[in-house]
Specification:
Recoverin, domain 1
């Protein structure tokens, strides 16, 4: 199955059901990762560490984070979009992490204002979200 087909099926599924389970979220994350990782030429060793709170400040890693956020529809017109991020959190996230994740997004979205580059903005907002509440942080 192609990545595009998988993404389309995923988006259709979103319209038919409520929030995903953590298992579904991880599965979707793997699909997004398979698309974004080769585009940004970033090895597993650097991407795997993000979920542990290790953010390697390299352009490839930063652009990988931006790619994931674009696929999650958190970026509109090459800018992080608070409203879209909150909507996606409501649609996608399991109930047990939904509100804490939305609180973290709210606390961190202004971090993007300090960066002109979308890769840097995405990276540092994501790092802030992790620091805000590492217990509920998920990133593919």
């Amino acid at each position: 199955m192609s990545i595009l087909t998988a993404v389309v099926k995923f988006l259709v599924a979103l319209t038919l059901c409520n929030a995903m389970t953590m298992k579904q979220l991880r599965s979707t994350g793997k699909m997004m990762r398979k698309s974004c990782q080769p585009k940004n030429n970033v090895p597993d060793e650097k991407v795997d560490r993000i979920s542990e709170g290790v953010f390697i400040e390299e352009k490839e890693v930063m652009c990988y984070v931006a790619c994931i956020m674009k696929m999650a529809n958190a970026i509109k017109n090459n800018k992080l979009n608070y409203e879209a991020s909150m909507k996606q959190a409501d649609l996608l996230l399991p109930e047990e992490i939904k509100q804490p994740a939305k609180d973290a997004i709210t606390a961190c979205i202004k971090v993007a204002d300090s960066y002109k580059d979308i890769c840097e903005a995405s990276f540092f907002v994501t790092k802030c979200i992790y620091n805000h509440n590492p217990a509920v942080f998920f990133f593919p």
